[in-house]
From TrEMBL:
Gene from which the chain derives: gph_2
GO terms for MF: phosphoglycolate phosphatase activity
Enzyme class: hydrolase
UniProt-recorded name of the protein: Phosphoglycolate phosphatase
InterPro entries the UniProt entry points to: HAD-like_sf, HAD_sf
Length: 187
């Protein structure tokens, strides 16, 4: 995690009411056809977005990704997972034509820019889908992404291994501050 950029999230929460563009129950409930009118690239986080925490990506998720590719979407993955997990993901995703970036500096925007540069698609034509405000959503906000969709954790909606207690606490605290204390609408 890029600590300086993450701390910027906390210092700027009161000023960034438009950080979350929309919310969805999970990746399966997003209206991708309506997004396709103005966007060409989807970037997903992995853990607790595409699959349960540190678990393999399941068949239902792979089928969704294949369908999105068949419908013309460029798809990128940006995760701050380990190098070993990245290698595992590459073996699974590269045959599908999905670019995967592993960096440990989320929410710094450089990793997000790496994906947009791979596809030569500008940030204003890009959608980020993630489960954490302070990394996925804030980083894509800093990168200038047009749409930032916050999903509920995969493990909460679909089952499977939950994130460790620290990550669950941080995710909950971020939501309480952003949506509760600063009275953001539940979009």
């Amino acid at each position: 995690m890029h600590l300086r950029t993450y701390l910027t999230f906390w210092l700027s929460v009161p000023l960034r009411g438009d950080m979350v563009s929309s919310r969805a129950h999970d990746i399966f409930s997003i209206d991708y056809p309506s997004l396709a009118e103005h966007h060409d690239l989807l970037i997903f986080d992995v853990d607790d977005t595409l699959t349960a925490y540190k678990q393999e990506i399941g068949e239902q998720t792979l089928e969704l990704l294949k369908k999105l590719r068949q419908n013309g979407w460029s798809i990128g993955i940006y995760s701050n997972c380990s190098a070993a997990r990245t290698e595992q993901l590459n073996k699974l995703l590269q045959p599908l034509g999905i670019f995967n970036v592993q960096r440990s500096d989320k929410p710094h925007p450089d990793g997000f820019f790496e994906v947009t540069a791979e596809y030569n698609i500008p940030p204003y034509r890009t959608v980020m889908v993630g489960d954490k405000l302070g990394t996925d959503i804030f980083g894509s906000y800093l990168a200038g992404f047009a749409k930032r969709i916050l999903v509920e954790p995969y493990s909460a909606t679909r089952g499977g291994r939950k994130a460790d207690p620290w990550n669950r606490f941080v995710r909950l605290f971020e939501k309480l501050v952003y949506f509760g204390i600063f009275n953001r609408d539940e979009i």
